[in-house]
Amino acid sequence: MSEQQAPEVKTLPPIFLDISPNSKPTEMDSLCMNCLKEGTTTMLLTKIPFFREVMISHFSCPHCGYSDNAIQFAGEFPAKGVTFKLVAKSPEDLNRRVIKSSHATIKVPEIDLEIPPQTQADTINTVEGVLERAYKGLKHSNPNPTPEFEEFLDNLDQCRKGLVQFNFIIDDPSGNSFLENPIAPSPDPQLQVEFYRRTAKMNEEIGLKVDPKSGDFQVDEVTTKTIDKYQSVFSTDQPVQEMDTDCPVCSHTGVSRSCTLSIPFFKEIIIMAFNCDYCGYHNGEVMIGGETSRYGRKITLKANCQDDLNREVLKSELAGIEIPEAEIKLVPGTLGGKFTTVEGLLRDIIQQLSAENPFMRGDSSDAQASSHFQNVLEQVKSFADGKNPFTLILDDPMSNSFIQKYKIDDPKPIIEDYERTYEQNEELGLNDIKTEEFVTDADKKE
After folding, report:
1. Are 81 and 173 in contact (CB under 8 A)?
2. Which are the contacts of 82, defined by CB distance < 8 A and separation ≥ 6?
3. Are 335 and 349 in contact (CB under 8 A)?
């Protein structure tokens, strides 16, 4: 009996190619919006070496001479928006590199400067370069300035020359902008980074379909594809529920799955995962039940074996991560919410640090800073591969994070509950909650 030959699998070429002299653009006929005759659009889908995928296009009309250039971000949007707040204290701070998308707003509150999204859109520059372009543009557009406007230009000139201290703020709901941290992956005391969930209006403004079920957590790809396995790991009597749901990317019908789990020594959670077979989009979220915890929680795991790397981890979006051996300290919101293993969390840290520090790679990077950054990544990789022991610390002011214990008296991990500070309660909005009128007589007796 003759053996049946396997069908030949054809590999499609990548859509986005690295920039090279041999890159070939695509040309197509397009309508000229100036004279309504036929022009030509030249388009190139490519990768900028130390940035991301972009679409570069050029339109020209041979009839009226009109031409136009554009650069657009490609690929998927980050899950959250981002705000960068830099306290510029010296001329060295002006050399920090900036990526500004077409959805980002830049502000300098001290001089009431605001650069709207479409101004200097989709550009790579420095802090000084951004302020320089703003200064020249405003000066050119006002040949006969008023005394007030001259004073404003003088203040802007002092900022761009580094003569005064000022705050440089980038707010980008699309999450595609970036402000360099020269000492990454260590935290920069002058640079504050905050991630936030986009509102429905923000999603519409950046061109995303509104997903009414978007949540606080992301389940990693492995967890999304193997949701059933957690029924054997954790306690649950409920089967996985399935329902048809429209895909937020392509609008085709996909499958949304949910399952309620009770994690031993922790809380009850609901895992929800969505997968679209048509476009390949997948996403997930975790919801934690129960009341708001009275205390914050710090979990310390000294990992020195493979069993420690296999421990399940639930990290809330409010939890910070610290690995003292690698001098890594990630602020809350850096990874969002994660349901994975210790090993998976370490690999997510490597991926996130690489993605959020594009200027640490390529020809534009500082050799010394880049070498230190790569050493840190290699060190974390050695932890994930089980080659070296390390300490993992999760600090969650809401006590919604968890590292699996193999038995009730497991000496690992170490759990410490602490009283939240007033500032932490203020950030969480707990100081504004008034419950006095809901207190019962029984509660008062207690």
Report:
1. yes
2. 170, 172, 175, 177, 193, 194, 195, 196
3. yes
pLDDT in tens, the chain (446 residues): 444 554 454 444 555 555 555 667 888 999 998 899 999 999 887 765 545 677 778 899 999 999 887 767 666 677 788 999 999 999 899 999 998 988 999 999 999 999 999 898 878 889 999 999 999 999 888 888 889 999 999 999 999 999 999 999 999 998 888 898 888 878 889 999 888 888 888 888 887 765 444 444 444 544 444 444 444 445 455 678 888 888 776 778 888 888 877 776 677 777 788 888 887 777 777 777 767 788 999 999 999 999 999 999 988 888 999 999 998 888 887 777 788 899 999 999 988 887 777 666 655 566 777 788 888 899 999 999 999 999 999 999 989 898 988 888 888 899 999 999 888 888 888 877 766 665 555 555 55
Can you state the percent helix, strand and coil of the chain, rounding each to 5? Answer: 25, 30, 40
SS3 223: helix
Q: Which amino acid is at 235?
A: S
In angstroms, rounded to a whole number, what is the distance separating the alpha carbons of residues 408 and 429? Answer: 34
Which token pair is 312? 């399940």
> What one-character-per-residue DSSP string does 266-289 give?
S-EEEEEEEE-TTT--EEEEEEE-
What tokens does 347 get? 């690999």
Query: If you ran DSSP here, which 8-state letter would residue 1 be given?
Result: -
With CA atoms as reference, report the closest residue to 206 among 79, 120, 113, 51: 79
Among 201, 206, 200, which Cα is nearest to 175's? Answer: 206
Query: Domains in the chain, start-ordered, CATH in brackets?
Result: 17-73 (2.20.25.420), 81-204 (2.60.120.1040), 213-288 (2.20.25.420), 296-432 (2.60.120.1040)
